Amino acid sequence: MASETSKALLPAGLADDLPPDADIEAEVIGALMATFRAHGYERVKPPLIEFEESLLGGPGAALAQQTFRVMDPQSQRMLGVRADMTVQVARIAATRLRQRARPLRLSYSGQVLRTRGSQLRPERQFSQAGFELIGSASLEADVEAILLAAEALRGARTTHLSIDLTLPHLVGVLAADRGIVGPRLDQLRDALDRKDAAALALVAKDDPDRAFGRLLEAAGPVDDALAAIKAIALPKEVSDIVDAASALVALARPHLGDLLLTLDPTEYRGFEYHTGISFSVFARGVRGELGRGGRYVLENGEPATGFSVYLDSLRRALPARVGGGLVFVRASAGFDRCQQLHAEGWRTVRGFDDAADAKAEAARLGCTHYFLDGSVHALDDAGRKQSGKR
Amino acid sequence: MTTGDKIIFALPKGRVLDDGVAMLAQVGIAPEAAFFDKDSRQLRFTTNRADVDLIRVRSFDVATFVAFGAAHAGIAGSDVLLEFEYAELYAPLDLGIGVCRLVVAEPESVKATDDPLRWSHVRVATKYPNLTRRHFAARGVQAECIKLHGAMELAPALGLCRRIVDLVETGSTLRANGLVEVETIAEVSSRLVVNRVALKTRPVEIGALVDSFTEVVRGQAA
Prior knowledge:
The complex is a heterodimer of chains A (390) and B (222). Chain A is an alpha+beta fold. Helices cover 37% and strands 22% of the residues of chain A. The longest helix of chain A is centred in the first third of the chain and has 18 residues, at 21-38. Chain B has helices at 17-27, 59-67, 78-84, 108-113, 129-137, 154-157, 172-176, 196-201, 203-221; strands at 7-12, 44-46, 52-57, 73-77, 89-94, 100-107, 121-126, 142-147, 163-168, 179-188, 190-195. The A-B interface holds A 119-120, 160, 162, 164, 194-198, 216, 219-221, 260, 262, 264, 269, 280, 282-289 and B 4, 67-69, 81, 86-94, 189, 191, 194, 197, 199-204, 207.
C-alpha cells in the first residue's frame, strides 16, 4: 500500500488529468483551434524545448524566472523548456516565415511548463492555445484580435464573459509628458496596478489636474470610462491613444452581443511588453483571467497583435459537460452496429458477456443508454444512481 | 436573487472590527443581529441589503478570501497587503482606520552597542516573514524569520531572537517589555480591498460600493 501511495504522489503543481477532464480539455482546444482556422489562421508547432537565448530574448526575458533549464548533452548549450509559446511563434514569423506575405496569421496550441506556481495559480504545467496576427498596424487588426478571441471562447461554451480593454502604453507617454521617469515611474505604475489611490496621491502629488487619479477612477464600463478620460486635459499623444480606443470600440461592439466590455486605461502588470491596445478576458466568478492579448512589436520591428488562452483558467469557466449519450452494446450485436450508432452521434461501450443483463451492465459501466432488441433505450435515473458511479 | 449573485464583504476580526462596522453603517450596510451576538457561532451574516452578505475572518485571511474571489471586497490592513502582494487584489481606498506602524524593535541593551551597517544576517520574530525578508534584503541583509502568531514582544527577552518586526500603535507594549523601535518599515492603515475579477466582471455594482466608501471617507476628511 505504502509503495502505491508514493507512486501516486506527483510534484507540486503537476496533475494527472482523468476522465472526463482530459476529454473536455481536448474538446475545448479543438473548438478554439477550429475557430482560429476558420478565420484563416494556420497552425504552427514549435518544439517543447529550445536554446535558452532564443526563448528568453526580447519579450521572453520576462519569463526567465519561470523557465526550466537543462544542459543539452549534445550541443553542450543551455536549453529552456517553454513557459509560454508566444515567443516561439514570434520567432517563427521573424525567421523561417519572414518571406511569407503579410499580414501573417498563425495559431498554436501546446503544453507549457513553469518553475513556480503561485497560491492563486498552483498549476506548473498547463495547455496554452492562441493566435498571432503579424505584420499589420491597422486598427482592424486590433478589432480582429478581440472579436476572434470572443468568438473562440464562446465556441468553447464559456458564459458570462467580459473583455477588459487596457492601454498599457498610455501611462508611460503621459508620465514622460509630466516629467515622471526612473524609479518614480515604477512607483507610479505600481500604485496604478494596485489601484492604490493613497499611494498614487503620494507619487503624483505635484500633478496639477490630478490626471493619474482621474485615469484610475475612470476604469469601468467602456462608455463611462471613455467619457471620463476625455474629460481630462491630456497631451495630444495621449488623446490619440484614447481616440484609437474609441474607434476600436465603435468597430468591435456591434459584433460582441451581450458580452460586457470594460476599459481600464492604467493596467500595466502582465502587459509590460505590449505597445498598444491590449485586453484581458474574464468570466464572472472565475479566478484570474481566461486569456489575454494585444499589440506588441517583434524583435525585427514588425507590428503584431495576438491572443493567448490558458486552459487551467479556462477549464474553471466551463459548465459541467452535459453527458453525451454513451450506449452499452452487447458484442454479439456486431462491431458494425456500433459504427452505425456512431454515425447517429452515439458513443458505444461493448459488453463481452451475452448472458449478463444489458441494463445492469450499462449501469455498472457508467452508460446512459443500452442497446437491446434493435433499438436504444435510455437508462432511467434510478438505474444510474444504483450503480453509484459515473 | 441567487447566492452566487450576492456581494460577499469580508470584515477583519480584532482591533479594526468596530471601526469597520461603523464605516459600513455609514455606507448603508447594517448586519443582522447575530453579528453582534458574542455567543453566536455563525460566520456568515446577512445584512439589510439583499445583495450583500458579510463574513468575519482573521485580518490576514481577509486578503486571502478576497484574492481568491471567495469574497468580493473587504477591509484589510496595508500590512497584510504588503505581506502577501496578491496580484488579484485592488486596494482603491485608504479608509483612515486602524492606523499604526510596522517597526523593527530590539532590547535597549542591544541598541546601545549595535551597528546596523555591519549586519549581514539578522534573526527576527514576526508575523510578516515575506515583508521582513524583503525589507532587509533591500539593504543587503539576509533575514532569518521566525514566524509567530502573537506575543512577539516576549521573544527577545526569552532569547528566541534579538529583534522583532511588529505592529505598534502607541508603543506601550514595546516599552513594557524593554524594547525600543529602531526603524519604521511602513505606516499602516486599513484599506478597502476589491477582487480584480469581481471589479472587471461586475463593474457597476462593485464600482458603486467603492464610490460609496469614497464618499464616506471624503466626508470624514472634510
